[in-house]
């Protein structure tokens, strides 16, 4: 398939998954606040910390009030990672490859886009009132996945889509888990308190993981929750699950089997096997936040390698004419792997470290 | 909803021969529409419109930043063409395309038509679409214009005329297909009751035409559609056609010349391309030979084409036939190449270049239509009857400064079709763009061009307006050609 098309399919899926996960971030916080005892400060700052767009947020809004944070994450077209921006980018990518995707997929994305645009036009003063909107965003993303799985051939293009979605989801699950790191408890004594427990439950719920978690664990504990979201082999939002499936798709794309040859395959394989063999004690020794932070960096590297292996023009065939090469890089830079993932990678990881 | 009170007025109406009297082929349609309550009809119109919106059947308007995508407004009342009329139109279009193709092949090679004094050399060489780098080209099977959209109109008496030729890269066929799809789902019973010619064959016919162009030694040709990209006004159509034909939609940046062949960049390296259906203007396809500022094309493409290692449809150079002065010579071409008389006439055309004619034009700007010879899309024209004195003066200056750049025609009072406007039926002016495919492969069962039955009926939605272009307040209707 065309490299440009592969790039767009990958990003189309990443953006939809990203929109869904931003909705999850917002939901977890809305849930938490409703359960907070009176007197506990409302914390919106952690959401900005965890999405990694702190610099832009400070520049656009300053103070992390509920209204500011919600608008920034939901309807702000100046923020590249707001739900509105993600859905717009997803649709733009879809539009540029719509002859390669099924009509049903296109209609679903278009409907998603129209729904979000309408909501943005018509947003309530207090976005907290619009909480069904976040549920709709999640549903629209699920619908898109369902339609894609049921109407598109599971060919190379589909695998690129999977790759985009799974890498994005792994990254975002790690960030959902990280929210707890930034959430302040009223005091050190509150660790293990009912409030602490409520926060972990809310976190599970925001990853749609609460019910599935309950089936395998009886008690809510930080270790169990983290273990479930990182290692559970069957839960489709756990990091390990995502990486294993992403690896399968990458292998299908590369067409290699036993002997892995491409740098992207090696990077992803290494990351997956690290998760396979690391013990939970090791993670906690290192610090969960630090572990997640490194994981996010590694995921970005995988993205970069995929870009060099399949999307970037191989150096040997660069056209002799200046015009063509300028044109080529120009087209890709609007939405390339390197740009978009580099952007988020840079912002996400440096900011998390700065915290 | 009743047509009572619908007045065809002093126009040729496509559905009514007189107030309350439909043409025979339209009788059943009118009866069925009358049996549908107004609310229901409006709902169906809205549903059709929203279906098109959801499908993303949109076009982009240049210079419109906010919400650049627009839905081409769609009207539920179809335009009808009787089987007999269609047979005649089809012959006329085939004749015209064959003659134009002879002209293109001649003008870029032997130039007999110039030598024999039928068309002045200066007229040809000053045409905007005339491309000297195409001199000496021999496209596969001698076919230059594989895909044409010819604009037809009818006057007050109902006589048909060819208004314009579009050989460069005509658009609109996707609306023909999508409008039909929407009409079928809105009025299924009508399609059962009436014997309407199907249009869905177009993508298969187009693919067949393109495949036949591949160099002979290629057994499984790679056909691609070259688009300027998602920001082009006809992008929807590009992706739609690529999808319907199952071919790859490429942008200039996806293609590269390597080892003497055109190749595309894929996830598994470079892959050879054999046929290019280009939807970018010919002077943009290769910056090394034509416009050096083009970022849309592929540097070096023309040389590969000359070597016969890739086929391009339409062939570069066909744009010369879109020039409105060249258009005026089509009757002569038909006589010269085919030894026939033109079946569908041209609109009488006055040349600003001719001193006497120019004087007549300048004296009658208030009643004529003046068109720039190199413009299209309803741009660069003056409709005398609807213009101000200042606009006329402005055009008079332009004509005097550049007589080659303008022609004039009498204002045709275009035929009308009842159109649903705010709960009533009102007459609105229409034109018709049929799509013609020309290839000399045996799969046609001969060498006659294929004409898709009907075409795109564009309707000027503004009351009294004669401009049907989508960029200027036009909409579209389904076109029903009856099997007689």
Automatic annotation (TrEMBL), chain A:
Pfam families: Alpha-E. It comes from the Bacteria. Residues 335-355 are annotated as: Disordered. Residues 1-310 form the DUF403 domain. This is DUF403 domain-containing protein. It comes from Phormidesmis priestleyi. The lineage of its organism: Bacteria, Bacillati, Cyanobacteriota, Cyanophyceae, Leptolyngbyales.
UniProtKB/TrEMBL annotation, chain B:
InterPro entries: ATP-dep_Glu-Cys_Ligase-2, CP_ATPgrasp_2, UCP005522. It comes from the Bacteria. Transmembrane segments: none annotated. Residues 78-460 form the Circularly permuted ATP-grasp type domain. This is Circularly permuted ATP-grasp type 2 domain-containing protein. It comes from Phormidesmis priestleyi. The lineage of its organism: Bacteria, Bacillati, Cyanobacteriota, Cyanophyceae, Leptolyngbyales.
């Amino acid at each position: 398939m065309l490299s440009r098309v592969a790039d767009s399919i990958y990003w189309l899926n990443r953006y939809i998954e990203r929109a869904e996960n931003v909705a999850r971030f917002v939901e977890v916080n809305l849930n938490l606040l409703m359960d907070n005892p009176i007197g506990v400060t409302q914390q919106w700052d952690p959401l900005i910390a965890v999405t990694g767009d702190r610099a832009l947020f400070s520049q656009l809004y300053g103070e992390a009030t509920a209204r500011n944070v919600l608008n920034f994450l939901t309807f702000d077209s100046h923020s590249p990672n707001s739900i509105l921006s993600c859905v717009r980018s997803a649709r733009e990518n879809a539009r540029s490859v719509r002859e390669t995707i099924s009509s049903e997929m296109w209609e679903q994305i278009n409907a998603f886009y129209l729904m979000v645009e309408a909501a943005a036009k018509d947003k309530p003063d207090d976005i907290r009132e619009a909480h069904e909107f976040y549920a709709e965003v999640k549903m629209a993303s699920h619908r898109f996945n369902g339609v894609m799985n049921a109407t598109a051939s599971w060919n190379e293009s589909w695998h690129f889509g999977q790759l985009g979605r799974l890498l994005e989801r792994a990254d975002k699950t790690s960030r959902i888990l990280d929210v707890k790191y930034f959430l302040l408890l009223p005091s050190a004594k509150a660790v293990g308190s009912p409030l602490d427990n409520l926060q972990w439950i809310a976190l599970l719920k925001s990853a749609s993981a609460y019910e599935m978690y309950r089936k395998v664990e009886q008690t809510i504990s930080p270790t169990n929750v983290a273990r479930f979201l990182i290692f559970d082999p069957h839960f489709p939002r756990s990091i390990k699950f995502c990486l294993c499936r992403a690896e399968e798709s990458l292998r299908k794309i590369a067409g290699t089997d036993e002997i892995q040859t491409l740098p992207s395959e090696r990077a992803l394989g290494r990351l997956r096997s690290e998760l396979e063999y690391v013990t939970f004690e090791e993670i906690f020794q290192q610090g969960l936040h630090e572990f997640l932070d490194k994981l996010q960096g590694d995921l970005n590297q995988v993205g970069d390698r995929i870009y060099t292996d399949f999307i970037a023009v191989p150096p040997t065939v660069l056209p002799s004419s200046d015009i063509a090469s300028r044109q080529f890089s120009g087209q890709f830079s609007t939405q390339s792997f390197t740009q978009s993932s580099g952007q988020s990678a840079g912002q996400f990881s440096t900011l998390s470290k700065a915290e | 909803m009743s047509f009572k009170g619908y007045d065809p007025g002093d126009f040729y109406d496509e559905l009514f021969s007189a107030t309350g009297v439909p043409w025979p082929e339209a009788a059943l349609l009118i009866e069925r529409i009358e049996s549908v309550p107004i609310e229901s009809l409006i709902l169906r119109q809205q549903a059709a419109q929203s279906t098109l919106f959801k499908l993303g059947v949109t076009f982009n308007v240049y210079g419109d930043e906010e919400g650049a995508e627009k839905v081409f407004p769609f009207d539920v009342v179809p335009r009808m063409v009787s089987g007999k009329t269609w047979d005649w139109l089809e012959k006329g279009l085939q004749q015209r395309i064959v003659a134009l193709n002879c002209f293109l092949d001649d003008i870029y090679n032997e130039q007999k038509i110039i030598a024999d004094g039928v068309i002045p050399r200066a007229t040809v060489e000053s045409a905007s679409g005339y491309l000297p780098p195409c001199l000496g080209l021999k496209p596969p099977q001698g076919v230059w214009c594989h895909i044409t959209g010819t604009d037809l109109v009818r006057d007050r008496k109902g006589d048909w005329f060819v208004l314009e030729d579009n050989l460069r890269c005509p658009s609109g066929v996707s609306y023909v297909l999508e409008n039909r799809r929407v009409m079928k789902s809105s009025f299924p019973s009508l399609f059962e009751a009436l014997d309407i010619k199907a249009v869905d064959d177009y993508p298969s016919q187009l693919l067949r035409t393109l495949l036949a162009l591949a160099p002979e030694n290629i057994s499984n040709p790679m056909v691609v559609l070259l688009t300027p990209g998602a920001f082009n006004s006809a992008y929807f159509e590009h992706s739609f056609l690529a999808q319907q034909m199952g071919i790859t939609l490429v942008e200039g940046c996806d293609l590269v010349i390597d080892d003497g062949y055109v190749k595309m960049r894929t996830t598994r390296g470079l892959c050879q391309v054999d046929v290019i259906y280009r939807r970018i203007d010919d002077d943009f396809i290769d910056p090394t030979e034509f416009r050096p500022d083009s970022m849309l094309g592929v540097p070096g493409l023309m040389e590969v084409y000359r070597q016969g290692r890739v086929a391009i449809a339409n062939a570069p150079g066909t744009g010369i036939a879109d020039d409105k002065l060249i258009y005026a010579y089509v009757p002569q071409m038909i006589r010269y190449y085919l030894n026939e008389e033109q079946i569908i006439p041209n609109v009488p055309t006055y040349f600003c270049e001719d001193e006497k004619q120019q004087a007549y034009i300048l004296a009658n700007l208030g009643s004529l239509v003046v068109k720039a010879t190199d413009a299209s899309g309803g741009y660069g024209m003056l409709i005398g009857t609807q213009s101000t004195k200042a606009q006329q003066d402005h055009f008079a200056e332009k004509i005097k400064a550049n007589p080659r750049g303008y022609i004039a025609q009498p204002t045709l009072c275009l035929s009308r079709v009842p159109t649903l406007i705010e709960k009533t039926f009102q007459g609105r002016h229409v034109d018709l763009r049929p799509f013609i495919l020309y290839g000399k492969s045996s799969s046609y069962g001969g060498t006659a061009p294929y004409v898709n039955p009907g075409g795109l009926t564009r309707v000027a939605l503004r009351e009294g307006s004669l401009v049907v272009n989508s960029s200027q307040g036009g909409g579209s209707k389904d076109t029903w050609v009856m099997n007689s």
